[in-house]
Amino acid sequence: MEMADFNKDPYSLVIAGVGGQGNVMASRLLGSMFVTKGFSVTVGETFGASQRGGSVMSHIRISRQSSWSPQIPAFGADLIAALEPVEGLRVLAQYGNPHCVLLCNTHPVYPVNVIKGEDAYPPLGDIKRHVKSLTPHATFIDATGEARRLGNPILANMIILGALSRMGDLPLERGDFKEAIRERVKTDQVALNMRAFDAGRALCL
Predict the structure, then answer these.
(1) For the domain that residue 57 is a member of, what is the CATH number?
(2) Which of 78, 167, 182, 185 is at 20 to 30 A from 176, Cα to Cα?
(3) Model pTM?
(4) In Å, how far are 12, 19, 138, 170, 186 from 60, measured between CA atoms?
């Protein structure tokens, strides 16, 4: 398990994925968790396409002292959490650096051109090799597989947040997540989201 160094100010974090994976929900929950800890947080979101399956990326900048522009400079990310492996590699190439930590879901979401047989999706082994050429600090987990075991693949975003909470000295506590999720989902969904968060933590023991 690669460790994140939270000593930088601002600390720049990217959540990457595709439409329909709950990327925006995850970024807002994460921002809320840091705000609860007393940090100044700015969140910026970009959408590669408005429909399900298009690239979605959230920039989160966290400071102990002041607010910053939500746009992370090229090669300026400290941590990238990717809900989809090709998106993880794409964002790492644009915003990563040799010190950047990547946490990446291994489950692919095939774009339309791959589904139609017009293009090929790269094997996970190739993606991992390209990632390792960009940073040695990469951890891959099957967040979607774990989410399916809980009954809903969309919970992969909550599993990623749970895994992030185990990365180095990031000040992300279970109680902070519970408080944040209670504000955003129906009461009868809180326990399931907490199980997903705990499953993510367990994957990174």
Answers:
(1) 3.40.920.10
(2) 78
(3) 0.93
(4) 6, 18, 19, 13, 25
What are the residues whose beta carbons fall under 8 Å from the beta carbon of 120, sequence distance 6 or more? 114
Is there a domain that residue 174 lies in?
A: yes
**Domain-embedded: residue 1:** no
For residue 133, give both structure tokens. Answer: 């050429």
Residue 3 lies in a domain: no
Count of domains observed in the chain: 1
Q: Which residues pair with 14 in a beta bridge?
A: 59, 80
Whether 95 is in a domain gets the answer: yes
- pLDDT tens, N- to C-terminus, the chain (205 residues): 667 778 899 999 999 999 889 999 999 999 999 999 999 999 998 766 545 568 899 999 999 988 898 899 999 999 999 999 999 999 999 999 999 999 999 999 998 889 999 999 999 999 999 999 999 999 999 999 999 999 999 999 999 999 999 987 899 999 999 999 999 999 999 999 999 999 999 998 7
